[in-house]
Specification:
Blueprint: E1 3-9, H1 13-22, E2 31-37, E3 42-48, H2 51-60, E4 73-80, E5 95-96, E6 102-108, H3 113-122, H4 134-143, H5 148-158, E7 163-169, E8 175-181, E9 186-189, E10 194-197, E11 209-212, E12 218-222, E13 225-229, E14 235-236, E15 241-242, H6 258-264, H7 266-277, E16 288-290, H8 294-298, E17 302-307, H9 309-324, E18 330-334, H10 335-338, E19 349-355, H11 361-372, E20 376-381, H12 387-391, E21 394-397, H13 410-430, H14 435-456, H15 466-478, E22 483-488, H16 492-507, E23 510-515, E24 532-537, H17 543-555, E25 559-565, H18 569-573, E26 577-581, H19 589-607
Parallel strand pairs: 17-18, 17-19, 19-20, 20-21, 22-23, 22-24, 24-25, 25-26
Antiparallel strand pairs: 1-4, 1-10, 2-3, 2-4, 5-6, 6-7, 7-8, 8-12, 9-10, 9-11, 11-15, 12-13, 13-14, 16-21
Bound molecules: 5-amino-5-deoxy-1-O-phosphono-D-mannitol.
């Protein structure tokens, strides 16, 4: 959560830091702040709300003049997702020590902050916020005896918890220090100026030469360069990497919102993900980075999948696939539950952590726990270089590109594709599916990007596809409802869960999602004439049973909104509203079935007037448990 940025150089720093923060706003948007110093004075501006509020304040200060070009500046900025302390200006970053000499921005959690606050207070410090982060400014001040790097290192060593911080000081003009434990921090190397941030997009418009700071390291940024030291104070030599990320990929590109753009990027994202794992002859060869081989995965005795939110739902699709095709026993759990369950596992278990960001605290901790207990650990992640990909023995990447909208869309479909590829490849290696069947399914997989395009229509003509029109009509009828129920069976169940999560997180409508067979064990009591019930009724061996559940819904006067495969007349007969999808193999259907549900959530939230890219109380990357 929280985005941090820093700049050292001679350009007017405030506008530059603000635009860097805009690229990280998906990480938090409760409040924001910027502090800059020329080594004598500090200009600190903080505001509650999103970055527009901060921009308005910056423009109002000094009659909009801001800090000038030419002076050697150091500056830091922060966009906050509140964990400790309310959302108000005093709790917004940057925080500073009692004398106002050291300013810091922090991402992550200082777990021992209560003890540290008490101790600092006893030593005479004036604490002005309710946050855990503020102690870092005071600790740096307390440890400082002329060496900012040593003070930052000593501070990091005193902190319990995973966090990253960037600090500046009036005693060290033109310098910044950054230090991290687990939470990410990346340096961008410029010409006579340097950048540091939680994620690369923050400074991509200024430089593509980056150095990733490792856990426990401290980086010192100066006008002419960057020096890195390890936890023991030894100098670290690390060559910069050249990033290939596309700037356009992190802009809205003519779409109203990032979420809509990302929904429309799904054909390309899925094609890109497939291309990494499909050979030219149509066979599958997993692009498994790291120290594990495909054969080791195939030889495992059991698969355990962990993840949070949408990533957990992708894991649930994976369970059906791995059981059905690869005939492997699969266990699945929410990462925050699994990590504290004292799970029984060993060397024959393959633990797969699914995470778009590769930074989610609970999934990270679950994978570390799995490694400590001797299991094989694979990360399924979208962000290259993220912590999870460093911790795991092997990584399977989704190649969805940067996802900015808080609601996961294209990364979910790509996670599902990787689960499909993994299950097929393990089936091949384990001999649990006929080669001919594997060939048919991989051919169908290869055609999926085209199928999604067929459904969505071209981005230029995006309002006019049959799917968009059908979904818009449903949204128009139901956007004012208070409650939606989602049901599904088999691989339709994770899609029902995901559809319900999408709707609740961006439209704030209460939703529930259930295995359809469970409906009459409780949730059916919720149904009345006004309840829309979204039924994921794509082809499957249990479709008949789902149709029976649809009849039960209608018998209570509630309305059935069915998602089905084209040409399925039996579903049509029992639905009040219907969205038909291209017919594909039942186990490949989740990839298509989720798309109308993403759009439905989008259309409803838009009608309710909400900011779909930045839903309240949420953040894109959840680096706290
Ligand atoms: O980065 P991760 O995939 O680990 O994130 C997990 C969840 O926080 C995430 O999927 C969340 O549920 C999304 N907002 C859903 O749209």
């Amino acid at each position: 959560m929280c985005g941090i940025v820093g700049y050292v150089g001679r350009r007017a720093p405030q506008g530059l830091l603000l635009s860097a923060l805009r690229r990280l706003e998906y990480r938090g948007y409760d409040s924001a702040g910027i502090a800059v110093t020329d080594g004598e004075q500090v200009e600190l501006t903080r505001a509650v709300g999103n970055l527009d509020a901060l921009q308005a304040k910056l423009e109002a200060s000094r009659n909009g003049a801001g800090a000038p070009d030419g002076v050697l500046w150091a500056g830091i900025g922060h966009t906050r997702w509140a964990t400790h302390g309310r959302v108000n200006e005093a709790n917004a970053h940057p925080h500073f020590d009692s004398a106002g000499r050291f300013h810091v921005v922090v991402n992550g959690i200082v777990e021992n902050y209560i003890d540290l606050r008490e101790r600092l207070r006893a030593e005479g410090a004036v604490l002005r916020s309710e946050t855990d982060a503020e102690v870092i400014a005071h600790l740096i001040g307390a440890h400082y005896s002329g060496d900012l790097v040593a003070a930052a290192r000593a501070t990091l060593q005193e902190i319990v918890g995973d966090c990253a911080f960037v600090a500046m000081s009036t005693t060290d003009p033109g310098r910044l220090v950054g230090a991290r434990r687990q939470c990410p921090l990346i340096v961008g190397l410029g010409d006579g100026e340097q950048f540091i941030a939680s994620a690369i997009p923050a400074f991509l418009s200024h430089t593509r030469r980056v150095i990733v700071i490792e856990s426990e390291e401290v980086a010192l940024l100066e006008e002419q360069g960057v020096r890195i030291t390890a936890g023991d104070g030894q100098a670290v030599e690390r060559e910069p990497e050249q990033v290939m990320l596309d700037q356009e990929a992190i802009e809205k590109g003519g779409f109203e919102t990032f979420m809509l753009k990302e929904i429309y990027e799904q054909p390309d994202a899925v094609a890109e993900t497939l291309s990494g794992h499909l050979r030219a002859d149509g066979g599958i060869e997993l692009e498994l980075e790291g120290d594990l081989e495909e054969a080791q995965l195939a030889a495992c005795g059991r698969v355990i999948i962990v993840g949070c939110g949408t990533s957990y739902h992708a894991g649930l699709v994976g369970r059906y696939l791995l059981e059905e095709w690869a005939r492997l026993p699969v266990e699945l759990d929410i990462a925050s539950e699994w990590r504290y369950r004292n799970p029984v596992l060993g060397a024959h278990d393959l633990v797969i952590g699914i995470s778009q960001s590769g930074e989610t605290a609970d999934t990270l901790a679950a994978l570390r726990e799995a490694r400590a207990r001797g299991a094989m650990v694979v990360a399924l992640a979208n962000v290259a270089g993220s912590q999870m990909t460093r911790d795991a023995q092997g990584t399977l990447f989704t190649r969805a590109g940067v996802e900015i909208g808080v609601a996961a869309t294209k990364t979910f479909t790509c996670q599902v594709v990787v689960m499909q590829l993994l299950a097929l490849r393990l089936a091949e290696l384990r001999g649990t599916l006929e080669p001919e069947r594997i060939r048919e399914l991989s051919d169908e997989l290869r055609r999926l990007p085209h199928r999604i395009t067929e459904m969505l229509g071209s981005p230029d003509d995006r309002r006019h596809s049959d799917l968009r029109r059908a979904v818009a009509a449903i949204a128009e009828r139901h956007w004012q409802e208070q409650f939606f129920l989602y049901i599904g069976r088999n691989v339709g169940l994770p899609i029902a869960l995901e559809g319900a999560l999408k709707l609740k997180e961006i439209s704030y409508i209460a939703t529930d999602a259930y295995a359809a067979g469970e409906m009459k064990h409780g949730p059916i009591a919720l149904l009345d004439q006004s309840t829309p019930v979204v039924c994921v009724a794509t082809d499957s061996p249990v479709l008949g049973k789902l149709i029976a559940n649809m009849q039960e819904v209608r018998a209570r006067g509630a309305r059935v909104i069915a998602i089905c495969s084209q040409g399925n007349e039996s579903v049509r007969e029992h639905a009040d509203e219907l969205v038909a999808l291209p017919a594909v193999d039942p186990l490949l259907q989740p990839l298509l079935a989720v798309v109308p549900l993403q759009l439905l959530a989008y259309e409803i939230a838009a009608r309710r007037g909400y900011n779909v890219d930045q839903p309240r109380n949420l953040a894109k990357t959840v680096t706290v448990e």
